[in-house]
Design brief:
It is built from 10 helices and 14 strands. By secondary structure, the protein is an alpha/beta fold. The protein folds into 2 domains: 17-255, Type I PLP-dependent aspartate aminotransferase-like (Major domain) (Aspartate Aminotransferase, domain 2); 258-359, Aspartate Aminotransferase, domain 1 (Alpha-Beta Complex). Bound molecules: pyridoxal-5'-phosphate (PLP).
């Protein structure tokens, strides 16, 4: 049985059914070669076009200029928490912390050198986003790091951070490809693929050429962006299957009209759910302040933890899966990435209404 349910998982997350079907159709014999894409050398003539398609796909969708490299690495976004400071933290680095993932990035960076947390919303519960003029960068910062969408807390930057001359590094794991961004504002963007780009096991890194020149000599090879870029992400065996799926997701996104079209649909989906929260007379309480609300991860609470448990269990029984909030914050989290359909947002809202009627 191939029934698909509404999958609200925060990651690994829903992939487009069309992508999975294409992968299934090509599984035994990729392009008629009599082998699957997983069974051929990453240096073969079969795989080269796959890597090229994935790179080209990301480049076209995000309008990435020629002076940026597109890499597909391993180790997850978490390895980037270490790789970024290991390569670029020389004097000091500024970190803007608006949620749990930003906090983890700081923890790793502190092992490499001096970190200035120039803004943290921790004390107010990671509900808000700073206005651009609230950010004062340190004169000696090698870079400023932030997370554009905090997956656990459900708060999202509504602008591309301007480093005012300081290289900007961004963890865009949970909102990359969900809307157009101004790539030229960034020196380096990274994202674990398992939300909006493909399966887990691939990390997308978009890095500006001039940053590559700052990689220290004698850096460990697998942590060396310059070496990884020089070898086109193939310093060792890359996640070939994952990169193949990334190429299919990019193709799917282009067919859907690209990231501008996605942004519209993502706004619509999130609005459907936030409106239901706002109209519930306080039964559902959104975690994020309104202006900071994430379009990707809608986080909210119910009147009690017992009701939250019941909500998650009953929702799953109704074909709405993955709604349990992250273990560190509890509550409910509805992740509605690119591949998540509008009908699923309506189905959740219908369920929410019904749940309130029975328990409100
Ligand atoms: C914003 C953000 N950064 C980093 C990570 C860590 O990603 P990974 O598990 O790929 O290391 C996640 C995972 O969910 C995330 O949402």
């Amino acid at each position: 049985m191939n029934r698909r349910i509404y999958n609200f998982s925060a990651g690994p997350a829903i992939l487009p059914a069309e992508v999975l079907e294409k992968a299934q159709a090509e599984l035994l014999s990729f392009g008629g070669i009599g082998m699957s894409v997983m069974e051929v050398s990453h240096r073969s003539k079969y795989f080269a076009p796959v890597l090229e398609a994935a790179e080209k796909g990301v480049r076209e969708l995000l309008n990435v200029p020629e002076n940026y490299r597109i890499l597909f690495l391993q180790g997850g976004a978490s390895l980037q928490f270490s790789m970024v400071p290991l390569n670029f933290l020389k004097t000091a680095a500024d970190y803007v912390v608006t949620g749990a993932w930003g906090e983890k990035a700081v923890k790793e960076a502190k092992k490499c050198g001096r970190v200035n947390v120039i803004l943290s919303t921790k004390d107010s519960g990671y509900k808000s986003m700073p206005a651009p003029d609230e950010l004062n960068f340190s004169a000696d910062a090698d870079y400023v790091h932030y997370c554009s969408n905090e997956t656990i807390d459900g708060v999202e930057f509504k602008y591309d951070l301007d480093g005012k001359g300081i290289p900007v590094v961004c963890d865009a794991s949970s909102n990359i490809l969900s809307k157009p961004i101004d790539i030229e504002k960034y020196a380096l963007i990274y994202a674990g693929a398992q939300k909006n780009i493909g399966p887990s096991g691939v990390t997308l890194v978009i890095v500006r050429d001039d940053l590559l020149e700052k990689v220290p000599e004698n850096q460990f090879s697998m942590l060396d962006y310059r070496a990884l870029a020089a070898q086109d992400s193939m310093l060792n065996t890359p996640n070939t299957w994952g990169i193949y799926l990334v190429s299919l997701v990019c193709e799917w996104l282009k067919e859907k009209g690209g990231v501008a079209a996605m942004a519209k649909i993502n706004e619509e989906k999130a609005k459907i759910i936030y409106d239901a929260i706002d109209r519930s007379d306080g039964f559902y309480r959104g975690h994020a302040d309104q202006p900071a609300r994430s379009l990707m991860n809608v986080t909210f609470r119910l009147p009690s933890e017992e009701l939250e448990k019941q909500f998650v269990t009953e929702a799953a029984a109704s074909g709405l899966d993955g709604l349990k909030g992250h273990r560190s914050v509890g509550g409910i989290r509805a992740s509605v990435y690119n591949a998540f359909p509008v009908e699923g947002a309506h189905a959740l809202v219908d369920f929410m209404r019904d749940f309130t009627q029975r328990n409100g």
